[in-house]
Structures are given as structure tokens and as C-alpha cells.
Amino acid sequence: MKKIVIAITVSFILVAGVVYANEEREIVSPESELYETVRIIEETAIELTKDTSEKTLLEDQYAEQRLLEAEEMFAVGNEDAGEKSLEDYSEHIEKIEKNIAVAKGNGKDVSEVESIVYENMEKRSENLLALLDRDDLPEQAKAGITKALDNKEKAKQRAEEARNRASAGRDNSNGAKGNGNAQGKAEQAKQKGQERAEQGKGNGNGNGNKPENAGRP
Amino acid sequence: MKERIKLTALLSYLICSLFLIAGCSTPNSSDNQEVAGPEGDIEEIEKEQVIMYEHTDRGIRVYETPNWEFGEQSEGEQINVTFHSEKGKAIITVLTSNKDLDEIKQELMIGVGKSNIIEETDNYFTFQSERKESIRTDVYIDQQGQRVNILTFMTPVDDYEENIEYIKEFKRHIEFY
After folding, report:
1. Interface residue A112 vs chain B (CB under 8 A)
2. If DSSP codes are grouped into helix, strand and coil, which group holds residue B120?
3. A52 pLDDT more than 90
4. Model pTM?
5. ipTM above 0.90?
6. H/E element, A118
7. Residues paired with residue B140 on neighbouring β-strands, in sequence order
8. Cα of A135 to nearest chain B Cα, Å
9. I need a surface site. Which of A161, A206, B116, B126 has the fewest CB within 10 A?
């Protein structure tokens, strides 16, 4: 009986260890030699993407990465790297806002993207607040977090305004028939945002699909 | 008498053959001198070997390649140099690390985000991002002792077929020493 209990305990520890290792691998540490390369890859992905909504979703994905990096860096005591990650996080948020403004300026309906981005920011604000509560955090880092939270508030406000506008527009054009449609779409968008955020947690896990014509140059 | 006739016929045959050979070869040799004589060959080789980028400390040399331009160089513990074509981007990275190839693969894939591996060998892997506008990334890894040379090509999936030849051509113009 003892042997079984020990075997189960050891198996549990081993499995837990692997999961932890995989979770750790969801971000590339700013201390990694490949970090700079990974950042160039991110920039290139944005550069090669033409659609503004897609660019915005990429910025949102990378903002998530920066925040996780900041948390990791503060946890290991690398404050400089943590502050840099927070600065970069704010830059991603600014680009998200800019992209949305440009898309709107071009007459594009980006309410769905706004909803996704807003949902993700809302989730991340909890992480930011948790960071802010840390006693060992330097003042500069706290200022960075406060700024990031401020950006979130602005974005949230804008997203709500956009949803209201979309809702009012649909009500006007559809009359009685359209009642509740905008709200329904917003709900759908919210749901999609949640799904994407959950998917985003599995970043980098290749499925290993191998099509027949790989086309290696 | 018969012998004289045979000799005359043989001489005539030889003379005609000489004329024919001379007649055929003269225009060609003059063409060669004009288009690609020894001096022209040297010029062509020199033209092919114009260096677009070189980092002597890290041992990277990239020769001028049609359709490719130098982008940026960032240097820290490792070096990253970018080049761009009309349809994509190339990143040359030189690491002096003990990272094994699996670690390198894993970290680069995390950088791209949610993606699918298309092909994978010991020193090469390619994957594409799971997005509406999917980006294909081809990574070639070459380990030279403590040094690892990484060559990354990124192209929108829709433009990939057009870009294959550009990538092949660019790869031929890179030297690590």
C-alpha cells in the first residue's frame, strides 16, 4: 500500500513539474539570449500584416506577453527588465488605441475588435493591480503600472462608447426589428474575446501538423 | 597517276575542312571577346561579390542580392541583422550560447504566438501563425561549436510562393566564417 502511495505521489510531482515547465515556456524571458530576436519577429509579424484589426489583435497579444514578462522579471528581482516590459506594455496599448482610431477614421467597423481588446485589458488590469500591491516594487515601476491602468480606463471608456454607438446605429436602421441585436452582437464579441483570451494562454504550442507540400525553400 | 589524284583529293579535303573550321569559329570567338572575354568574366565575378553587409567580429558576410536590402543591426550579447525584400523579411542571428536546438525552436515559436509546425528537421523548421493574415516563418539553424547561426525568413502565407526564389537566392549570398 505504501509503495502505491509513494508511486502516486512521485508521479504527481513529475507531472506537476512538466506542467510548470510548460507554463514557464509561455513567454520568452527578457533575460534570454533570444529575446531580442523574438521581439524582432513580433515587429515583423505586425509589419507584414496589412489589416488594421489584425494588427490590433497582434498588439494585444504582445501586450499580454509584456505583462507576463514584467511579472516574471519583478518576481526574480530584475527590476530594470520589469520596468522596460511595463513601458513596452504601455506602448502596445497606445498602438492599439491608435490603430482603432485610424480604422474608425477610415470608416471601418472595429467594434468587435474593440470588445476583444477591452475584455483582455479588463483581465490584465487584475494582474496590474496585483503588481501595484507589491511592497518591493520601485516607485518608477509603480508609476508605469498606474499609467498602464490609466490607459486601460481610457480604452474601456472608448470601447463602451463604441458599443453604445453601434447599438444606437443598429436600433435606428433596424427599428423595432433590430431590438437587442447590437447587444447580442456585443455579447457574442465578448464571448469570442474570452475564447481568444483562453486560446492565447496556449501560445506557442505547435500542433505538429504536416501538410504534404511543405514547400521548403 | 591514281596516287596523284588521291593526293590532290586529300589536299582539297583538308583545305576545305580548314576553311570550314575557320569560317565557323571566327564569329564566335569575336562574340566571346566582346561579351564575356576574360576581362568581362572578372568584372562579372567582382560584381557578384559586392558585399552588402559584413560584421567581421561575428563572422557574417552578406553579398548583394537582387531584391534584398539591408535593414537594421542590433547588437547586444548576440547580434541580429535584418534584411527585407518586397514580400518578406530575413533576420540573421548569431548566438554564442549553450542553448540546444530544441530550446531555440521552442523560444522562437513562442515569439510568433499560436502557430502550426509545417515541417521540422534537426536544423530546420517552419511554422505559420494561426491568424486571418497568416505569416509563415522558416528558420534555419547552423551550430558551429559554441556559436549558433540562425536564419529566419518571414513571409505572408499568401505571398510565400512568390518569395521562395528570393529566399533561396538570399541564402546563397550569406557566409558565416
Report:
1. no
2. strand
3. yes
4. 0.69
5. no
6. helix A111-132
7. B124, B151
8. 31
9. A161
